[in-house]
Design a protein that fits this description.
single chain; 10-stranded antiparallel β-sheet; globular
């Protein structure tokens, strides 16, 4: 005999409030475990401002290059970011991690942001991006293809003339939050950006 009546719809994922964002970022110890590092420390402390303009060419590739750099005017509510790297007593930094999270009013808005960025990143895939420092020195970065599909995408950027310094950009939405990561190491096949994004996503309430 089959029970009658209306079944309840599945419960929606909890909405992440601005006050919860800082706690989503990986601590140095958590990031060290994820990346197989031994002594990561905070090198750029918690910041609640968008990254803003970065001198990258083509300018349309800003979002593919720098976390939380294209969020103004998107309707995001609050952003928090932090950078980790090997401790200063290590002669040569072999890990550098920029992690940012920002929230929207709804999960649909967060997913829409990643969808729009996916299209932008596609136009920047398999190209050379040029960063110009304040001293006029230029750095060339060779981008790879866009990996994955919304709500989780990634792209590798390898700096020229560095012996393989490679960063993986990872962008994904989880609930009403967007996770935006840039994780670098001397590893041209690195999946470190996705690993960090996975670990941050695991801290988002479900």
């Amino acid at each position: 005999m089959t029970a009658t009546g209306c079944s309840k719809p599945p419960a929606a994922a909890p909405t992440v409030a601005a006050s919860q964002l800082d706690s989503l970022l990986l601590t140095p110890a958590e990031a060290s475990t994820v990346l197989g590092a031994t002594d990561l420390q905070v090198t750029v402390p918690l910041n609640h401002n968008a990254a803003g303009e970065v001198p990258i060419a083509p300018p349309a590739c800003l979002g593919a290059y720098e976390p939380a750099s294209t969020i103004e005017g998107t309707g995001y509510l609050v952003v928090t970011s932090e950078t980790l790297a090997d401790a200063t007593h290590i002669a040569e930094s072999r890990h550098n991690v920029q992690q940012a999270v920002f929230n929207f009013s709804t999960a649909a808005q967060a997913a829409s942001f990643v969808q729009a960025q996916s299209q932008q990143w596609q136009s920047c895939a398999n190209k050379t991006l040029t960063y110009t420092g304040s001293n006029g020195k230029q750095e060339g970065w060779d981008s790879g293809p866009v990996e994955g599909a919304p709500p989780a995408i990634a792209m590798r950027l390898t700096e020229r003339n560095t012996g393989g310094w490679t960063c993986q950009r990872a962008l994904r939405s989880a609930s009403n939050v967007v996770i935006d990561v840039n994780s670098c190491a001397y590893d041209t096949t690195t999946n470190r950006g996705n690993q960090v994004a996975d670990a941050v996503a695991a801290k988002v309430p479900h």
